[in-house]
Amino acid sequence: MKSKFVFFTALILFFIGCTEQPKKKIEVDWTAQKSSDFSKDLAIEEDIDIKIFLQRKKDWKITETGSGLRYYIYQKGSGPLAESGMTAEVKFEITKLDGTICYKTEGLETESFKIDKSEIETGVQEGIKFMHVGDKIKLIIPSHLGHGLVGDFDKIPPLTTLVVDLELVSLRKS
Q: Per the structure, how many domains does the chain have?
């Protein structure tokens, strides 16, 4: 009799334990206004970081665009001006503000991309259109013009300001 009692008790506990408990709905207090405020705060912090970085680069003659891109052409070329739709061949070095190198062309290596028609960072797409063949430029690319909230899933973390040293080697019409 005692073994039947233990068996039935265990059986009842088993079925009670296996019943699905109702899931609690998690309430998130997030609004469009909070999202907008969060984005503004991030932009302000990033702008402060860029200004601190540029205080150490007093010899750079920086120009800022309406988008937040900052650039400095430090070597003038004599070739044609880059335009949307052209294919640009470039040498580059991409670093974080702390100087950590993320990507770099080596030696005679170049990369090419179609201006305004490729997945290259928006900041590079904007900045290259200030360049003539032979120019060398420093681009300070805020995260919203770079890889944004997610990074590139490799060497560029989320919300990273980039410093791109870019040389426009050649252009061709596509």
A: 1
